[in-house]
Amino acid sequence: MKKIVFTLMLFCFASLYSQPSAHAAPILTQDIIVEDDGMFFLAGSVSVNVADSFELFDSVFSADSWLSFDLFGFQFEQGMDDLFVADFDIDNLMAGFEFLQFDVLDLDSGWAFQGIFSFGSGFIDVFSAPNETLVAFFENAFLGEVSVAVPAPATISLMLLALFGLMLRQRAIS
């Protein structure tokens, strides 16, 4: 009887922790690189949670919010007035963004940034927000290195559960 109860309990715990969670979706991150006077430098990066996207057609998905977005040393928090569109092929995440468009404002500094990228290349505008003066224009901007991370929050719990099961099994054999 104890073995049956133990087996059922172990099965319940295993099924509880092995269910995929909403946090286990891939996170697509891509660098933004700009050229200035013949020199290329990393301007920032943008990350989107694939689970927060919607299907446009076939395998092309679109995200209208970012998980993290930094550009020229500014870390942006998404606001109501921010425009953000990132399209990607769900079947080939390592290809990165097929299309990226943003129009964001850093309220603390008063700097506004606009950018459009299509299949890896594009441009970025930098404005002084109070008087909407164009401060910089990077006509040679590129989407750089792509990384795809898949968080696994239940891994440690599953390992501890397996270790507990092995300890009980060893105790029952002795």
From TrEMBL:
InterPro entries: Ice-binding_C. Residues 1-24 form the signal peptide. Keywords: Membrane, Signal, Transmembrane, Transmembrane helix. The chain crosses the membrane at residues 148-168. NCBIfam families: PEP_CTERM. This is PEP-CTERM sorting domain-containing protein. It comes from Alkalimonas collagenimarina.
